[in-house]
Design goal:
The complex is a heterodimer of chains A (335) and B (300). Chain A is an all-alpha fold. Chain A has 15 helices and no strands. Chain B contains 13 helices and no strands. Chain B is elongated. The chains are: A mainly alpha (335), B mainly alpha (300). Chains A and B meet through helix 1, helix 6, helix 7, helix 9 and helix 12 of A and helix 6, helix 7, helix 11 and helix 13 of B.
């Protein structure tokens, strides 16, 4: 087990170095040098440019700059935003809980709906129920989620007036940000109506973001269940006279869940891609929205730092998924 | 062919040819057939966009801005799906958008399929340090959410339709590299490869003439599914203002331009999205069908 742990963790070191190289290269690959980008559209006299280049250490050889960059990253210094002049890391940590909250509920929804849907489709194979689940999930899988989000707003917010159009909470509430998770913060403040407001703001974005993972989970659960249902131990379980629910939930599902859990874990990248779009549409104050603004306003330290941080998160989560998988399934450990 | 001639001479029913056999397997799935039919229709629309669309895509009919679809109250049969905020015919723009979306899919998949296959074959054939470098690089690319990677590339190259295609090609690349490498490693130990090597085939011939034809199935399936992610990502980039720029009738950027009218004129939002959904769905259906037909091992 220890050897597996060591081997798997050491694998991410080159990946992480690659990510820092990519983030570092980004600043140097963009058209114009960083000083010009800082100065904006206005021209700059050569002497001032020289001085700024030296001030930012941009006149040194690239390898030196790279080592310097990595040293700063390891110290937690990711530069300052050109638009807000706040440290990039601080901005990220303030906004990240909003993204986590959204992603968590999207994933919860996807699992709660997707898992049973996949089980039903597998049990009722080649019936109307199966075709319905597979049809809906294929459609969900093919859905441009920015458009899906707009349809949800159009129907639930504009036509029915049930849910708010954007933001995390109605403006009249001022909840002290302790954890950054709006639901927890409103609960801790003991403000029930603020909690309801936060919850109602969360519903539509969660549906929008959760749709693709839901489709993936339903499809994956169905095929994993079909695989397991063919096994000999299933016939044994039935032959023992166990009730159907026990055969399905205990004997089949437990074994079918292993690949499904992996798939759920590996949705993180997909989820963050979706979060970029969902947050933009719902003006959700999270990391995705921040990154899009960063690109649009050519705020390169934000883009650079954001890419590095997001990649780190994806690498870490994938590592955790892999390690859990290794714990659950010994065959992987010794492969 | 000689086999068929032989069995025919014996007076037995000839075995179906490989193409026929493939078609029989493919046609078993109704979804796959629907997908294929939709794609043929979309390709025809794209080719004959200028002939089929009732109006030029960028022609502004100023007196008809935001006309609802023909079946709505206040609709006009001249504009079947209504007009957009500056009076352009929605139907014509959507038809021309088909051309763009299919082109984006075709070009970005072609770039990443060919580059990815070559890189993957080299990695799988040469092994060693070359393989490590290539595969770790792909790991880095996979560790970024696809849309974020595309956004990063666009940030470097600048927004626009062509750059969006490059960005998407880069995003899709790791999948082909991984597939090609895995296939080469699996095939390289087979006897037919060894016999070809003994017959004096050089590494290039071995890679591209001997091994490659035997690993096309997963690459074809991935390429088909790549079309749908390319079209989705291009639309997302267009929607964020980082892809095709107005007045290009690209579906994603059409949606972006229509956002402020969502309450008054829902059709400017619903139709472009529906076009994206149908196209992506068609490629996903065909991809699933191809996978089942080409690779019976994966059939579930």
């Amino acid at each position: 087990m220890l050897a597996f742990l060591f081997r798997r963790v050491s694998l991410i070191v080159p990946t992480f170095i690659g990510v820092t190289l990519l983030a570092f290269a980004l600043i140097h690959l963009i058209p114009g040098d960083p000083v010009e980008n800082i100065s904006g559209e206005r021209g700059m006299d050569p002497a001032r440019r020289e001085r700024l280049l030296r001030e930012f250490g941009l006149d040194r050889p690239l390898p030196v700059q790279y080592v310097d960059y990595v040293a700063n990253v390891l110290k937690g210094d990711l530069g300052t935003s050109l638009t807000t002049h706040e440290p990039v890391l601080d901005e990220f940590t303030t906004l990240f809980p909003a993204t986590v909250e959204l992603a968590f509920f999207a994933m919860l929804l996807a699992t709660i709906v997707g898992l049973p849907a996949g089980i039903i489709a597998a049990l009722k194979r080649n019936t109307v129920a199966d075709y319905a689940v597979m049809g809906v999930s294929l459609t969900g899988y093919s859905m441009p989620i920015f458009w899906w989000a707009l349809l949800l707003i159009l129907f639930f917010s504009v036509q029915l007036g049930w849910t708010p159009v954007s933001g995390r909470i109605a403006v009249e509430y001022d909840v002290p940000a302790l954890t950054g998770f709006m639901l927890i913060d409103t609960l801790r403040a003991g403000d029930a109506s603020a909690f309801r407001s936060a919850l109602s703001h969360l519903i539509l974005p969660s549906i929008a973001l959760g749709t693709i993972p839901l489709a993936v989970i339903a499809r994956m659960t169905r095929s994993a269940m079909l695989e397991v249902l063919r096994e000999d131990y299933m016939r044994t379980a039935r032959a023992k006279g166990l009730p159907q629910w026990r055969v399905v939930l205990v004997h089949a599902l437990r074994n079918a869940l292993i690949p499904v859990i992996t798939v759920i874990g590996l949705q993180v990248g997909l989820l963050l891609s979706g979060a970029i779009l969902t947050e933009t549409i719902f003006s959700w104050p999270g990391v995705g929205n921040w990154l899009v603004h960063g690109v649009q306003s050519r705020d390169y330290p934000v883009v650079q730092g954001g890419i590095l941080l997001v990649a780190t998160i994806v690498i870490t989560v994938n590592l955790i998924v892999d390690l859990t998988y290794g714990v659950v399934n010994p065959r992987i450990r010794h492969a | 062919m000689p086999e068929i001639a032989f069995t025919a001479a014996l007076g037995e029913t000839p075995a179906p040819g490989p193409l026929r056999e493939f078609w029989n397997a493919y046609a078993q799935s109704r979804g796959a057939l629907i997908g294929l039919a939709l794609i043929v229709l979309l390709i025809l629309l794209a080719i004959f966009a200028d002939v089929v669309s009732p109006h030029p895509p960028n022609e502004q009919y100023r007196e008809f801005t935001l006309t609802p679809p023909a079946w709505d109250a206040g609709g006009n049969t001249r504009f079947l799906l209504g007009t957009d905020p500056v009076g352009r015919d929605m139907l014509s723009r959507l038809i021309h958008g088909t051309r763009l979306s299919l082109l984006i899919g075709l070009i970005s998949v072609a770039i990443s399929l060919s580059a990815g296959t070559i890189l993957g074959m080299i990695a799988g054939y040469v092994r060693g340090l070359t393989e490590t470098v290539i595969m770790r690089l792909m790991d880095v690319m996979l560790s970024l959410p696809s849309l974020l990677l595309a956004i990063a590339v666009v940030a470097i190259l600048g927004p626009g339709l062509i750059n969006a295609m490059y960005a998407i090609a880069i995003v899709l690349l790791p999948h082909y590299v991984r597939l090609a490498r895995a296939a080469v490693i699996a095939e390289a130990g087979r006897e037919y490869v060894a016999s070809s090597r003994i017959a004096g085939a050089g590494p290039l011939r071995l890679m591209f003439n001997t091994i490659l034809p035997n690993c096309t199935a997963p690459l074809i399936v991935q390429a088909t599914l790549g079309f749908s992610s390319a079209i989705l990502d291009a639309a997302a980039l267009g929607f964020l203002g980082l892809g095709a720029q107005p007045p290009t009738p690209e579906w994603g950027s059409m949606l972006a331009g229509a956002l402020e009218f969502i309450q008054r004129a829902s059709w400017v939002v619903t139709f472009p999205g529906l076009a994206i959904l149908i196209t992506v769905l068609a490629f996903n259906l065909m991809g699933d069908g191809l996978r089942d037909a080409l690779d019976p091992k994966l059939k579930r």
